[in-house]
Amino acid sequence: MPSLLTKTALTGFALATFVVTKFVIRVISARLCLRHIPGPTSTSLLWGEEWNLYHDAPGSHYLEWHQQFGKVVKFRGACGHQILSITDERAVAFIVGEDIYRFPKPDGVRMWFKKTLGEGILWIEGKEAHEKQRRSLAPALTPQSVRKFTPIFYETSAKLAAQWTKILDNSDSDEVEIEVTNWAGRFALDTVARAAFSYDFDLLSGEPNALAEALDGLTNNENKLSSFYMRALFWVFPAILSIGKKGEMIRRVKAELGAIACQMWRDAKIALNAHSTDNDRTLMALMLKADAISGQQLREDEIVSQMRTVLSAGYETVSAIVAWVLYELAVNPQLQEKLREELSSPGDPSLDELNSQFPILDSVILETLRLHPAILENHHQAAETISVPLAHPIPGSSIPQLVIPKGTVISIPVNVLQMDPEIWGDDAHLFRPERWNNPDPTRPKLFAFSEGPRSCIGKKFALAEIKALTFTLVQQFSFGCSREIEQIQSFVVRPRIKGQVISSLPLTVRRV
Ligand code: HEM
Prior knowledge:
By secondary structure, the chain is α+β, with helices and mostly antiparallel strands. It has helices spanning 4-33, 50-55, 60-69, 89-96, 107-116, 127-137, 143-169, 180-197, 210-219, 225-233, 244-273, 283-294, 300-331, 333-342, 351-356, 359-371, 414-418, 421-424, 459-476, and strands at 72-76, 82-86, 175-179, 377-381, 386-389, 401-404, 409-413, 477-480, 485-489, 493-497, 506-511. The protein has a 4-stranded mixed β-sheet with strand order 1-2-7-4, sandwiched between helices. Strands 3-11-8 form a 3-stranded antiparallel β-sheet. Strands 5-6 form a two-stranded antiparallel ribbon. It is globular and about 85 Å long. The chain starts with a helix and ends with a strand.
């Protein structure tokens, strides 16, 4: 008679064999299903293409592959897992459109958001749960709400300009070199925190701030080996996000941001209960008000996760785009002069004026978003085996469809979509804001904010604050660049001096 121990061991063994067999069958059938998809041969058994994707110019391999293999490309990630890179316009519209909930974020990406921000809108999946969170955030980011935040955008812009004036005043020269990415980050975090819940990190006073440094350290990879391991492996082993120094940093930032958000939530709640209208200018108060009206009543932890998410989503992206706008103006002096002429009207324009009266400003920002998308890849994972329609059949086939097996990770490379010569012309790789004058209405839109039900909910907020800052800075300063600058892949795509490790953008700044 087998003992209880033997029985348990046999059951365990049978279970493990079942799980492993199921996994192997799934991997083999996925491989068979995708065997006709072209792509590069793997350069590393262990890392697949991750090493090259991480270390070479951001997005450069996606550009090469799609030029060579067409609009659907298969490549390997770490530990042999298969990734599909898709730029076919019909397939992309299908994946990010109404079917988005069948293509959730990959497990590793969700784990990252959960660990750093909590169970907010960037983490949540499922139509009903996501729509609930989106509905509660939406009233705080409507054009009317953004109008209420516009004075904050000008105040933080003026603070930044005052700091640069001080630097110039303290210099013997009428031209100084300023490291712009650091100031852009301070501007973006101060702005979003003030708009979100009237919290002033006061980073624009120029003093060091431990939380801001931790937040930056969390996502600024700066090509460290540890950041590479994390990026390469979290797809297959999401638990890697809990270990080591980075894991510790993740926990600390989450706790500190949570403490601030908690306090602000309580203050906003007191103001709401007292029917005070003073607080109506913050994103959190607008959210609470909308919830009270709808009777939805979000819990404290839900609101706190959402506030962390808003801070994080609105910080790095805006900071990167501000840096790239100033860089493009610095290396295009004639355009910078034309823009200065356009922005020469006195006083701060209203939001409506900012959005309607400055076509050069508009085109500079759109062209920057096109050539320097902050979020380079939009990642998804097929929740089930799904047949996706294609505009262009896979080479060698006539079937305008692609069957994507359950579990396959999908990457939509934004730079390839936004630099496709068939759409943007032979000069697609050049910064040419004029292409936005009278654009062809049939031309696909930018993908920098994504599209569909999960597209960026803060787009109008982001555009307004970037416009207000550009307006303020270009009126007061002129910019030049004497260094060779390249892109570096961090959480977002940042600038750095060519050949250096750390992200930075030193620009020469003068008063006008
Ligand atoms: C230039 C600046 C910005 C860019 C380029 C940008 C880009 C994006 C992109 C590409 C997504 C989709 C992400 C995905 O599908 O994985 C996204 C989502 C999101 N963004 Fe932004 N963003 C910017 C600024 C902001 C700001 C300022 C806020 C808040 C005030 C914000 C809040 C959000 C939120 C909450 C989501 C999640 C939406 C959802 O899942 O329904 N973003 N953003």
